[in-house]
Design brief:
The chain is mainly beta and 412 residues long. The protein contains 4 helices and 22 strands.
């Protein structure tokens, strides 16, 4: 079944408004219960999205984060208290505010399928943490994006998980076990695996619940690189052009100058960015844009191992990992599904993944803050080595147009 994500954004503090794209809907945003002594206030809103589920394996969720426009006129990130929220009325749900306080997951608390709909949900903004003494008259925007919970567990790696695209038989992005067998990641230390991303070839051993043995001596010496064995959340859909346009609308002119405009149909009209194709996967990703959006929204890039886990789970890869045929243009998100219910993985836009040999990369999530020039402030992401995974079976010219955006966040 084809599903679509509606991503709904700008809303005002006190003034009610709404904007939508892709069936994720946030509306009736307001504030209540301003506690000037504790410097907290409740941000209240209604939220709904289609094709929600929770079953015996996993569930989908909304990652919710909030921005406010400070006295300077620049947008800042809201920090939430890990308690003091309210579940609202409607679909029974669980709210889990991240330990870093930059956002919250909202998901079904019981098995079920269909539309998730909830009214008068509240998150508690601790504005004192931002150095504010009052929030009177400030503008806020509530952002929500669908993600999918990928549970802890064993998974397989497709021996071939990308095509270079310079010719119909150009394969790159491979991880092989001895005798060209399919690697399996679990709690046991793997045999020596050979990884090739076209730029380099390395050998490693991997223990799912501990990390990587980078020199194959039987001892795990890197426990920070995201293996994928432990639970994480992954974008349910590729990022859309509407989401990138909304991102641009919270940046300064200097930040936009640095990052530039992604996608193919985003234009500036009367001082605001709009797109004529809001549900289309956003292309023209590059390293600065990719990591900046992750940092700004409180998530992080995914590793090539997490990508494989998200696609195949414990199942063996089809056709050695090269599975899809797609037209030579980006489509609306929501065309193809993976084992866990994540859509379009590698079959529409090309998926940005952190290469396996980038050992300085770690599981740290974005903090919602960008530099004055629009760059990430997460030091472990500096010099991030990205490979764009393409699972298209037949040739298409690899250009920046097809380089997409998708993110994960470690589960807590």
């Amino acid at each position: 079944m084809k599903t679509k994500l509606f991503f709904l954004l700008p809303l005002l503090l006190v003034v009610i408004g709404q904007m939508k794209a892709n069936n994720m809907l946030v509306k009736n945003v307001t504030t209540t219960g301003d506690n000037t002594a504790n410097k907290t206030i409740q941000v209240q809103f209604d939220m709904s999205w289609d094709n929600s589920w929770r079953d015996g394996i996993n569930w989908d969720a909304a990652w919710v984060f909030i921005k406010y426009k400070g006295a300077s006129g620049n947008w800042q990130h809201v920090l939430l208290n890990t308690s003091g929220f309210a579940n609202g009325t409607g679909t029974a749900n669980t709210i889990k505010v991240g330990n870093d306080k930059v956002g919250a997951f909202v998901y079904r608390s019981a098995a079920g399928t269909g539309t998730f709909a909830n009214a008068s949900m509240q998150l508690q903004w601790n504005y004192g943490l931002s150095g504010l003494t009052s929030v009177t008259g400030l503008e806020i925007r509530v952002f929500a994006v669908e993600m999918v919970y990928v549970p802890q567990g064993d998974f397989t790696i497709a021996p071939r998980f990308s095509i270079a695209g310079f010719g119909c038989c150009d394969i790159y992005g491979t991880i092989y076990a001895p005798a060209n067998n399919t690697p399996v990641i679990n709690r046991r230390l793997s045999p020596v695996l050979t990884y090739n991303n076209l730029a380099t070839t390395i050998t490693v051993r991997i223990k799912g619940d501990e990390g990587i043995d980078t020199n194959n001596d039987g001892i795990v010496d890197n426990s920070t690189y995201p293996i994928g064995y432990n639970a994480f959340y992954c974008y349910k859909y590729e990022m859309t052009e509407q989401q990138y346009a909304d991102f641009l609308n919270t940046l300064t002119a200097s930040q936009i100058t640095t990052l530039g405009v992604a996608g193919t149909s985003i234009t500036l009209t009367n001082g605001k960015y709009f797109t004529s194709t809001p549900n289309t996967a956003c292309g023209n990703s590059n390293t600065n844009r990719f990591v900046a959006y992750a940092d700004w929204s409180g998530v992080r890039p995914m590793s090539v191992l997490e990508f494989n886990k998200a696609v195949y789970g414990p199942l063996l890869a089809v056709n050695n990992g090269i599975d899809y045929w797609m037209p030579d243009s980006l489509l609306d998100v929501g065309s193809l599904s993976s084992y866990f219910g994540i859509m379009d993985l590698g079959g529409n836009a090309m998926e940005p993944c952190i290469t396996l040999n980038n050992y300085t990369f770690d599981k740290k999530n974005g903090d919602g803050i960008l530099s004055a020039t629009g760059l990430t402030d997460i030091t472990s992401w500096t010099g991030t080595a990205i490979t764009y995974v393409d699972q298209k079976l037949y040739f298409r010219i690899r250009t920046l147009t097809f380089n997409g955006f998708r993110y994960v966040r470690s589960a807590e």
